Amino acid sequence: MSLLYSIKEGFAGIGRAKLPASVTIATGFFSLLLLGLFGTVSFSFYQLIHEVRSRVELEVFLDDRISDLQADSLNARMQSIAGVAGTRFISRTEAASRFASDFGADVVGILGTNPLPRSVEVSVQQGYTAPDSIAHIEKQIAALGGGLDIRYNKEYLRGVERNARLFTLITAGVGGVIALATIILNAFTVRLAMYARRDKIKTMRLVGATRRFISAPFLFEGIIQGLVSGGLAALGLWLVFEQALLRYEPAIYQILHPSTTVIYPALVALGIALGFFGSAWSVARFLRKA
Amino acid sequence: MIAFVNADIDIRKKPIFRNLNFSIQPGELVYIVGRSGSGKTTLLKSLYMEIKPVKGEIVVNGYSSRKIRKGKIAMLRRKLGIVFQDFRLLEDRNVYDNLAFVLKVTGTKHSLINEKVMTALKEVGLENTAKEMPQNLSGGEQQRVVIARALVGEPLAIIADEPTGNLDPETSLEILEYLKKINAKGISVIVGTHDYELVRHHPSRTLMIKEMNLVECTLEPAPADTCWRPVPKETAQRPTVAEVS
């Protein structure tokens, strides 16, 4: 049995059973489009949460009694702590100029002296932005000694974490239901289409066709149908984002757009996988009975 | 070529045959007769290993029901041409493709397929229907296509299960003529039928199903059929099992 025969028969099978093939493709298209829309929105929100988390920084204020040499040493030791992405030393002068740009007033001009302390801004690596991880980094910095005053927005971080957890639960639940519905719907549509051909499968068995000879064209048929339904779902999603959203809701488009580059190929791959496994499952069932 | 040795056959745990012992030699034309529901189809199914005996052994073309693996059943069926009462043609392809499918299954070279298909169709007088869809043909023509499909793979035996069951008496005789023509070429033909009239018209070795076994019969034109003896156990010749699965 040649590969070419199986591919040709796969296409011919769609031609011979246009209605079941159309129903299978339409079912795949709608379910994958729904999954794609949900996936894009979920994926974009994950990226948004990730972006918010990556902005978390610890601000470490140095004691006035610490010498510049000691300050440099502390800065270097902070950099070597696990989970720290980088540090930036802020001198008194830089702190004053920041104050001036933030509040529009020269603190030295008003007070006659610069009371602002030296500090180190500590940025955190991606995997260490959870409240527990940051608290651990905070402890390690405090352990360096030298009367360090460590500050970061704990409430904000907790809020982000709380919402992220809730969002994960909701998307996992809803996404799981949609994914399961997509798989079941597609599998049973393929099976229904195959059911109409059970006599044909039986006849093929009786004239001496092997299981592989019978199933290979059906598997290719499933792959072709999955490719078409996945491709159409990707096209539908492209129309929603690149045409409708870009024109009428450009702000939402900006948030969602980066995710679609992943979702388009994922939909096609998922379509192919659903077509292949759906057909394999159905043919195997009918072959067992034939 | 075909041997049943002490074979018990059940369907869903219900005994259908007990202690079957008989053999069919190459080139024989054998009728399996019996009332509807007596087990003709079950017996024929056991020849192409769709049903296996619960006890004993069936040997067909060297394939033993005891040892045959699932994958080898397809190989056995390629050496048997099967004819059904309800035709079982692939209705989504034309007559030519129905026959060509059998050859593709066996990996026949593309260049030989056309010649073999047309020869088989000529054998049954249907060379002009190659492009027709099966459902556009009459019942008799469809059955002739089925016979051509059974022939195209150059089988050692043809198994026909009520081949005339859906046909009028005249067409039935015509179909039997084709089967006899095939048999004359040395191909064994086993016909399951309840049409005793047909058997009387073309007499040959006849096995009647009686009390879960087979008895040799002569169907006389007289009102009562004469079934003179059960098939004795010793007549069952067990061929060499060439295929070790």
Automatic annotation (TrEMBL), chain B:
Stretches assigned to the ABC transporter domain: 2-236
GO molecular function: ATP binding; ATP hydrolysis activity; transmembrane transporter activity
Keywords assigned: ATP-binding, Nucleotide-binding
UniProt xrefs under SMART domains: AAA
Pfam families registered for this protein in UniProt: ABC_tran
Coiled-coil region(s): none
Stored SUPFAM superfamilies: P-loop containing nucleoside triphosphate hydrolases (SSF52540)
One Gene Ontology CC term in the entry: plasma membrane
Function: Part of the ABC transporter FtsEX involved in cellular division. Important for assembly or stability of the septal ring.
Protein name: Cell division ATP-binding protein FtsE
